[in-house]
Amino acid sequence: MNLHLINDVPDGLTRRARSFVSAHGVKVDVRPVEGNRQWWLERDIPAVVIDRMAAYQELSLFRFDGHHRCGGQAAGTAS
Q1: Structural domain count of the chain
Q2: In this predicted model, which residue has the larger pLDDT, 41 or 68?
Q3: Which domain holds residue 20?
Q4: What DSSP string runs through 1-43?
Q5: Are residues 3 and 22 in the same domain?
Q6: What percent of the chain clears pLDDT 90, i.e. is strictly above it?
Q7: What is the spatial distance between Cα 10 and Cα 17, in angstroms, rounded to a whole number?
Q8: Is the domain of 22 the same as that of 36?
Q9: To the nearest whole percent, how much of the chain has pLDDT over 70?
Q10: Are 27 and 2 in contact (CB under 8 A)?
Q11: Helix or strand or coil: residue 77?
């Protein structure tokens, strides 16, 4: 976990967004969804739900690391 993001703010944000993230943002390490797939399946969580979680997690990693698959700008990013 990183509580001080002053020098670790994602590229592409507006000046205002960069200021907010550097002052209030917290970057935490997240365990991959795939690492828990079998445990959830054993507890009757449908595979389609786990797939959706994994897809969202992958998309979030791209978004917050400043990479955009669609080539579009995310909200709060500079053009």
Answers
A1: 2
A2: 41
A3: 1-30
A4: -BS--TT-PPTTB-HHHHHHHHHH--B-----GGGGHHHHHHT
A5: yes
A6: 25
A7: 10
A8: no
A9: 66
A10: yes
A11: strand
